[in-house]
Design a protein that fits this description.
Length: 276
């Protein structure tokens, strides 16, 4: 069984876009729909794609963005670039009645993150600069089953897995969210695509690992994806890789944020004491 996820490269782009509308999906998740001529050619083919979104430096209020030059991306000589990663939840190509549109879904988690603060205040007509995605990794082909784990930040990625996996693939989703207000995020159609177990953190910690253990053995035709708070995923990774002995290609785990850390580098090993 191969779990290869074919890579696809996209031309690099830094897009200056405008907010067309904002929709509150749940009390803590808000959808920002972006439009702009620079969306032409936007492509995102994989469930774990991400764009870089740029925000004003909270210390100065100044927005600094990279420039695309014939030699590639160039940082301006002055200014501090503040960027965060977001999943392109949906891209709709222009029709006769509507322009190209890109949806980004933001978790609103308080007042100490520039991205969350921006999203909480976003309004029609606001500007937003978005770079990428540089590339996509397609869903693995030939698998029989997928186990998908997500917290709120990975609900856009989970949604894309649900849309992109072959209809033959049996899906179990373990979704670790604050409370019962969050499931409304997923459309009825997507909810029907998977066997979804909703875990509410208000009911206690460590439910994700317990639920994963409760699934029993994971066979060699099952692909496992998980994204969310990095510290929560470390014991999950140990279980999958060391207790069950699954090879690295069968397991894709990514820390999308880490409690107490601003702008977590998701390319760094999830568990620094046990890098892949
Ligand atoms: C590949 C990838 C895709 C992602 N896709 C999405 C997406 O589609 N939607 C989305 O909302 N997020 C997504 N994220 C996560 C998002 O990039 C982080 O949550 C980011 O830190 C938010 O930036 P911020 O400016 O709000 O907070 P930061 O300035 O980065 O952090 C400030 C403080 O807030 C805390 N914090 C950060 N995020 C959260 C959170 N979600 N809940 C509680 N506390 C938090 C930090 O621990 C820190 O203490 C993705 C991350 C990656 C790597």
């Amino acid at each position: 069984m191969s779990f290869t996820r074919e890579p696809v490269r996209h031309p690099m782009a830094v897009r200056h876009l405008t907010v067309a509308r904002v929709a509150k999906l749940t009390p803590t998740l808000t959808r920002v729909t972006l439009i702009g001529e620079e969306l032409a050619g936007f492509a995102s083919d994989g469930p774990t794609d991400h764009v870089k979104v740029f925000f004003a430096d909270p210390a100065t209020g100044i927005l600094t963005v990279p420039e695309l030059t014939p030699d590639g991306i160039r940082r301006p000589e002055s200014g501090t670039i503040v960027s965060r990663d977001y999943t392109p939840r949906a891209f709709r190509a222009a029709t006769a009645d509507s322009p190209d549109e890109l949806d980004l879904d933001f978790v609103l988690h308080g007042t100490d993150g520039p991205a969350s603060v921006w999203a909480a205040n976003a309004a029609t007509g606001d500007a937003l600069v978005v770079a990428g995605p540089r590339g996509s990794r397609l869903v693995p082909s030939g698998i029989a089953r997928a186990v998908l784990m997500a917290d709120e930040t990975a609900l856009p990625a989970l949604s894309r897995w649900l849309e992109l996996l072959d209809p033959e693939v049996e899906i179990t989703a373990l979704v670790d969210v604050a409370d019962a207000s969050v499931p409304a995020y997923l459309s009825d159609e997507l909810r029907l695509r998977a066997d979804i177990v909703w875990l509410y953190r208000e009911n206690g910690p460590d439910q994700l690992l317990a639920a994963l253990r409760g699934l029993g053995p994971i066979d060699e035709e099952t692909f496992v994806f998980g994204a969310g708070e990095a510290s929560t995923l470390i014991p999950v990774r140990r279980y999958l890789r060391h207790e069950l002995g699954l090879p690295s290609q069968q397991v894709a785990l990514s820390g999308y944020w880490k409690r107490g850390v601003a702008n977590l580098d998701h390319h760094a090993p999830l568990d620094p004491s046990d890098p892949d």
